[in-house]
Design a protein that fits this description.
By secondary structure, this protein is α/β, with parallel strands linked by helices. Helices cover 32% and strands 19% of the residues.
Length: 200
């Protein structure tokens, strides 16, 4: 199993399998790996295990971004994530750090985690995935009831604390791209469309 992998110009950290969504489009429904790296974790990796693997990729400044994104929701392990950011900062001279998230962290932790992250990360990309709660629940199958409005609030809060905020949808027939663009525009963040892929 791998906690670190490279995709394009970026280095990715895969720190958990846990997730509060069970998205129908999630790559982990179709494969256990990205490229030759098995990302399905047999257990929750420790700080020491992840940093040991990270050290194999030094120097970190050669990467465009270091991204917390894997087979689970990285912000469920926010304390570990912050410790790992501190490690990355100690081994680099300002490499950009990004988190890809489903936006459920405030509900999961019952506090404003975005404010905690403002001194740690440079960018946050949040999965909007649908234009309303009904479609969101159908596509993402969240463990929390009525989480869609909380997700929108999470996006708005992110704008207050994080330098770069983007939201995304997956290119699925059920999703109304135009309506999602309007939601993003109203909040004041860019929207990008991710391709539906079963392997990388």
């Amino acid at each position: 199993m791998s906690t670190v992998y490279v995709l394009g110009e970026n280095l990715y950290l895969n720190i958990t399998n846990q997730c509060t969504n069970r998205c129908t489009f999630c790559i982990r429904n179709f494969t256990d790996r990205v490229g030759d790296k098995v990302l399905w974790l047999n257990y929750e990796p420790t700080y020491d295990e992840i940093t040991k693997e990270l050290e194999q990729y030094l120097p970190l400044d050669r990467f465009k971004e270091i991204v917390f994104c894997g087979f689970g929701e990285p912000l469920l392990r926010i304390n570990l994530l912050k410790k790992l950011v501190e490690f990355i900062r100690s081994k680099s001279s300002g490499v950009k750090i990004r988190v890809d998230t489903n936006g459920h962290a405030n509900i999961f932790h019952q506090r404003n985690v975005i404010e905690e992250l403002k001194d740690y990360i440079d960018a946050i990309y949040i999965s909007l995935n649908a234009e309303n709660e009904e479609k969101y629940n159908k596509i993402c199958r969240p463990v929390f009831e009525s989480v869609y409005n909380d997700l929108l609030e999470f996006i708005k809060l992110s704008k207050l604390y994080i330098k770069e905020v983007k939201v995304s949808i997956v290119d699925l027939p059920i999703v109304d791209k135009k309506s999602c663009e309007e939601i993003a525009k109203e909040i004041g963040v860019p929207l990008y469309v991710r391709s539906f892929v079963k392997t990388l």
